[in-house]
Amino acid sequence: MKQSLCLIALVFAGGARAQSPDRGLFTAIQFLDAKLFAAYNQCDLPTLGAMVADDLEFYHDKTGLAVGKQPFLDAIRQNICGKTQRALVAGSLEVYPLNGYGAVEIGVHRFYPPGHPQDPTGEAKFIILWRNEDGKWIVTRTISYDHKPLKK
Question: What DSSP character marks residue 21?
Answer without folding.
Answer: S
